[in-house]
Amino acid sequence: MQKSYETYVENMKKLADVEFSIAVLSWDKEVNMPPKGAAFRAQQVATLSGIAHDIFTDEKFGDLLKELSEKKDTLDKVAQNNIAQSLKRYNRVNSYSTEFVVRKSEVTSAAYHAWEKAREANDFKVYEDALGKMIDICKEESELLGYADHPYDALLEEYEPGCTSKELDVLFSDVKKQLVDFSKMLSQAPQVDNSFLLTHYDKDKQWNYGLHILKHMGYDFEAGRQDLSVHPFSTSFSPEDSRVTTRIDENNFGSMTWSCIHEGGHALYEQGLPATNYGLPSGKFISLGIHESQSRLWENNVGRGLAFWKNQYPNLQKTFPENLSDADLQTFYKAINKVVPSLIRTEADEITYHFHVLIRYEIEKLLLENKLAVKDIPEAWNSKYKAYLDIDVPDDKQGVLQDIHWALGSFGYFPTYSLGSFYAAQFYQQASKDIPNLEGQIEHGDCSELLKWLRENIHTHGQNFSAQQLCKKITGEPLNFKYFMDYAKAKYSGIYQLG
Amino acid sequence: MQKSYETYVENMKKLADVEFSIAVLSWDKEVNMPPKGAAFRAQQVATLSGIAHDIFTDEKFGDLLKELSEKKDTLDKVAQNNIAQSLKRYNRVNSYSTEFVVRKSEVTSAAYHAWEKAREANDFKVYEDALGKMIDICKEESELLGYADHPYDALLEEYEPGCTSKELDVLFSDVKKQLVDFSKMLSQAPQVDNSFLLTHYDKDKQWNYGLHILKHMGYDFEAGRQDLSVHPFSTSFSPEDSRVTTRIDENNFGSMTWSCIHEGGHALYEQGLPATNYGLPSGKFISLGIHESQSRLWENNVGRGLAFWKNQYPNLQKTFPENLSDADLQTFYKAINKVVPSLIRTEADEITYHFHVLIRYEIEKLLLENKLAVKDIPEAWNSKYKAYLDIDVPDDKQGVLQDIHWALGSFGYFPTYSLGSFYAAQFYQQASKDIPNLEGQIEHGDCSELLKWLRENIHTHGQNFSAQQLCKKITGEPLNFKYFMDYAKAKYSGIYQLG
Q1: Which domain does B348 fall in, by range?
Q2: Has the ipTM of the complex gone over 0.90?
Q3: Chain B: residue nearest A14 by CA?
């Protein structure tokens, strides 16, 4: 049995080698590749993806997984879970016929191009047919994969294993009940001024400040690097080489700063995964929601917190005296936490952000339940923006056409962004209990105890626990929106001087 | 038959996708990778190499090649040659048993580490045993691969297909007969002064000047890029993405400049290969010697030529006035062509360089003929340096331990460097005949006709012709040392004012 398990490990490592190679090619594409290289690079990535698929779906490998699963009692707990996770994945991947995979890839290609054209024309109608076909094939996919309660769950499983629409319904009904009213209170209070964040900040100085902040967080530059790209992202080729990218807007200090901290949070998770379990579930991140919890904890709970800037702000003022010498710490702290309803999800503050996700989640569910026609999506979108954000959507480009996700068939993806924030709040609250004087440490420029806590409680476990199990193990209860709400109330009541 | 040929093409493209992916990972390793990433990167490259090997050595693929080879009359000429080249390669690769491959990889690993240690200790004896084993296994390899005349030919075939030691013997006997005496004449003439090339040249200005020169040569930055690395190299991921690297020594203007032109020459060859034949022999470079002919033609025949600097020098003087305002064009031209016997091959001038290769070639042959014991290599090395270069080798590090090639088992590699220069001279001489007023064009800053000539006569043909065939096709005769000697005499008689 031990020998079979070793064969399994070898195969998973080989698969990881190919998948991480794809990640290198993709990183290079965004960071370095000269424009003419695109076509052959796409072909090279497609070939490696096909090879990875062949390695994982090999029938002999499936037989091995089944054999190991049947005799799992001879394996230790971590190995048992690895086999269980891999077999689950194997069965999922093998649910797809080649015919289906080819067809979905064609539908996706068509939808992506239609979405691009629709954005250019600023007209949803250009996209309508192709999106309709994409929704149809995603419905087909959910039937093919199977589900207990709701077709949404079959798709959600890809991004947030074990999570269900039932669980999301509870969370988002809390969002509606509590966050909508709270957000209205904020918008009725006197608004804070963040205009000095939108002045000219020197590019090179921003770049160096970003590197400084990553080091400050504990990001290991011996096992990673930062580069520039059009859209910031993090990627990993192993725990020993986990990279981040950022972008710099010379007229917006926040653009670089929080994307840098956000991607740094993702990368700290990857750098913290156990290298000895490379390629195995026990060496991989749990879910998109948990991954996002790591980026958002650093971005918002730490990086938009008062303690962090009590330490960092004097240095920042010295770096950008023209921009910041007139703004004291409190003014800066308020400015970086300005809450205001807006049209574009990726530019939203940490409060109204969740309405953007809520709207997408509600529309996705309605579509899968056949309760909303494709042609009616823009209307549904716009009326929900009015209802939840009290904002008029002027056109499709700033409305329903803003995200790429549906064009790629990624239904079920959006909720993981909110899950990230909610997990982050609950984890940070627990860290504050577990670590004596956490805020005091951060105020003194020491993030190491927090990183150690994240390493020990989250990173090091890989997929040994599901998101739900991990949350309970760490905080003693399942994911609860209460923690995010408590955090939001405490923070923003101060900033907006609510009664 | 057409369908079988298409299957062959698909398989070759798939193989190329994997091989070019390895090239991306290797480029990233030299240019970007953080230090801790090395171990997993090595594993990832090894896995992809294994996959590439499996694709190419698949028995079904071999059967397909044999089938296509037997019925080749139904294919066009290019396709026939593709099949012939691939089948030759298939048979060569399949000559190795897995046992042999594993054993050679172990011997190589041991030899490499022993070489590193020996360099550290500056003592050949530390390396002697491991090198002995490497020589033994290379002898075994040549028997396993088979040869008509000399075991050397079996190994040479890997780097310079179709070339034999008989051909090399003729060339190097010419080198000995003509170049040794000529070089002595140069060393007896009054020496030129190049001290102003070894003053401080600003790093950023050098970098920009390198980019300028690449553009001037016709290197397409839409299909490539330049980066820094410890050792300059060129690499290719497709004709649409062929990259170069350089290094900058702030106290040596030549280090960046000629490595930049040299690697640019390699990359121009890769950018000129026909993209439509991606992955096929008809889309690949012919041999290391022909590849090197492209780098050396640009580096020496163009980049160390008077015409090139007649055009470039005024601009260069303006860029580095502190270094160059006192040196006129003739002084600069002489300085960049200083000939002086030296210990280190990679730092040698274009004349004495070939003695370094000659010495290695003679020693390699003696070893394969069992006429030289491993323990006697340093003595043979040192006495040959005295004989050909009239120079005393002070220690092993500056002598027999300077190159990595033998530690990697690359016997037969060195001659391709000299072949490159000799082909370059013969090609350039022909180009000067074919292109009206070539030197005048270069003097006026126009390299485009030369590049066009190289594209049409060399690059575009891939492996449709062997090196020997191509040389005859272009110049009307086989490779002939005479052209290099004519070039050297004409150029250096002027520089050194020989009677």
Answers
A1: 147-499
A2: yes
A3: B47
